[in-house]
Structures are given as C-alpha cells and as structure tokens.
Design goal:
The complex is a heterodimer of chains A (121) and B (110). By secondary structure, chain A is mainly β. Helix content of chain A is 0%, strand content 48%. Chain A has no helices and eleven strands. Chain A has strands spanning 3-7, 11-12, 18-25, 35-41, 48-53, 59-61, 69-74, 79-84, 93-100, 110-111, 115-119. In chain A, the strands form two sheets. In chain A, strands 2, 4, 5, 6, 9, 10 and 11 form a seven-stranded mixed beta sheet that branches. Chain A has a four-stranded antiparallel beta sheet with strand order 1-3-8-7, with no helix packed on it. Chain A is globular. Chain B contains no helices and nine strands. The relative contact order of chain B is 0.34. The model of chain B has no long low-confidence stretch (mean pLDDT 97). The chains are: A mainly beta (121), B mainly beta (110).
C-alpha cells in the first residue's frame, strides 16, 4: 500500500517562498502510469488542486496559481516537491500530496496526512 | 475556473438516505465522466469514496453510490450511519489537464 508523507517548514514569512516535499513509500514513484499532485485546504474551507507532475518531469498547474508554482520530482529519492513563491496570508492552508490517477479516471486514491503551513511575519 | 457548487450542509437520520449534489458546467462535469467524491473527517485527509461518477473503490461500503445527469453529479448515501458524518467533496476533470473541486458539504447524522 503506497503511503505519502509531507514535510517542510510550518511557518513562512509573507513574500517568501513556501517549500514542501512529499516522500512516497510502498512503491516506486516512477512505476505505473501515475501522476503526483499537490492539493491544499485553508482552514474551514474547501480543497484546491495546485498542480501535478509525471515522473518524466512534465507538469500541469492550476491556472490561478501557475505564475507562482513550481513542482519538481526526484525519482532517486522517491520524492516530489512544491515551491510556491511570493506567499501571502491567503496561502495559509493544510497542504496535501496525493497520487493522481490522471489519464486513467482522474482521481486521488492515496493522500498524505497533510501539513499545515502558516504565512505570518 | 470556479469551484463546483455543493450545498453547504445536508442532514439525515440513521437509516435514511441522503443525496449530495455537485453542479458544474458543460466545461467540466457535463463534458466528462470523471467525477470523484471524497469523505473527510475532521483533522483527517480526504478519502476517495467514488471515482469516474459511479465506481466504488475496494473497501468502500456499497451504501455509497454516485450518478450524473447533465452538469450535475450526485452522491447518495443509503442506510445512514453515525460514522458517515463528515464533509464531502466532489471533484471533476475540467479540461486542459486540470481538475476542480466542489466547495464541500457537511453531512450531519441527526
């Protein structure tokens, strides 16, 4: 059973860059036809898809965040990462990483536990 | 891209059935049979309950079912149980390789 775990700073200052890493265990990040996504959820609010990456490095981003987001992958470490620059308080949220079955149904069967990132001076 | 529209809350008594709607547009829900549903308990990660409109993953109770008509998808929970009390989110492919979520529905079991 694949497992995902987010890690990274829980506090980021406004205008700086939020950086998170998702470590995948229980299977190779390069196996199969799976993609890997980041999704976030502000407190008390709904889910927002941020973007996805394929093991080849190909990415797709939410148009509303595209100018500030970079997702990368390190297959040797079985990890993928999120960078969100020029953050504001509106970026405060729980950030989830998930396995993304894009192209074969487009759904998220496996999620990390989530990590809270607060943007504050 | 605007979030899919879900009712903020629904409620039902144990044993009853409830339906949660998810309304999109002809650019997302209406164009693709790629709607999924997630259950989220407080402080927990979302859990996949339905994929591709009406497919139930292994381990998900057959009390959960999904359907779609036009631009609206629906999740029905039959034989409500206390453990079903949670937030529910729909998600749809929205074209151009993107996905969009609904705003979420809080289910209360009375």
């Amino acid at each position: 059973q694949v497992q995902l775990q987010e890690s990274g700073p829980g506090l980021v200052k406004p205008s700086q860059t939020l950086s998170l890493t998702c470590t995948v265990s229980g299977g190779s990040i390069s196996s199969g036809t799976y993609y890997w996504s980041w999704i976030r959820q502000p407190a008390g609010k709904g889910l927002e898809w941020i973007g996805r990456i394929y093991p080849s490095g190909s990415t797709t981003y939410n148009p509303s965040l595209k100018s500030r987001v970079t997702i990368s992958i390190d297959t040797s470490k079985n990890q993928f990462s999120l960078r969100l620059n020029s953050v504001t308080a509106a970026d405060t949220a729980v950030y989830y990483c998930a396995r993304d079955h894009y192209g074969s149904g487009t759904y998220f069967p496996f999620w990390g536990q989530g990590t809270l990132v607060t943007v504050s001076p | 891209q605007s979030a899919l529209t879900q009712p903020a809350s629904v409620s039902g008594s144990p044993g009853q059935s409830i339906t949660i709607s998810c309304t999109g547009t002809s650019s997302d829900v209406g164009s693709y049979n790629l709607v999924s549903w997630y259950q989220q308990h407080p402080g927990k990660a979302p859990k996949l309950m339905i994929s591709e409109v009406n497919k139930r993953p292994s381990g998900v109770s057959n009390r959960f079912s999904g359907s779609k008509s036009g631009n609206t998808a629906s999740l029905t929970i039959s034989g409500l149980q206390a453990e079903d009390e949670a937030d529910y989110y729909c998600c749809s492919y929205a074209g151009s390789s993107t996905v969009i979520f609904g705003g979420g529905t809080k289910l209360t079991v009375l």
